Amino acid sequence: MSDQMDVFVSLSAALTGFDASMFAPSVDPVNLKQVYFDYIMAKEPTNFTVLLDTFAVVTGTGATGGDAWAETMKGGSETVAISAEMVRLAMSINKLWYLGSWYNPEDTTQQEVVSEQSYIRGLSWQVMQSHAMGNSPFTFGYWAKDPAASLALTTGNPDATGGTS
Length: 165
Prior knowledge:
The chain is mainly α. Helices cover about 45% and strands about 5% of the residues. It is built from seven helices and two strands; from the N terminus they run ααααββααα. It has helices at about 5-15, 30-45, 45-60, 85-100, 115-120, 125, 150-155; strands spanning about 100-105, 110-115. The chain has a two-stranded antiparallel sheet with strand order 1-2. Helix 2 crosses helix 3 (about 45-60). The longest helix is centred in the middle third of the chain and has 16 residues, at about 85-100. The two termini are about 35 Å apart.
């Protein structure tokens, strides 16, 4: 993965509460992280680059190759000013991962479905331990039983609770 993609995966994990391995599995035929990365970069190139660079600096993961973060630094490397635009962008990225739709950071009444896979693979389905309507990998009658896995296993986050063990 590229440096920017590594930071995007880390940022996505921080925003959603899911483990980073959920966004970058070793086998990833859909590669939704790349679809989302490219989509966001096309929609919000400047703010997205600033957000990635700022997150990389704040978390110590290193710069992503640009100097855009330098403009957000105030009073040294320990204080970081985050603009309202970056906060709205981070919220839109979070919604994208959970709901599979892009919500315009400037006007959240405007939304777009990014791809057919984005809806099916929205994190909200995993949190609910469910699946998108009309897209079930399970056999008939599965709903009559408790979920097989705990929420910690579903999200990859050992601190998550819920479900059965």
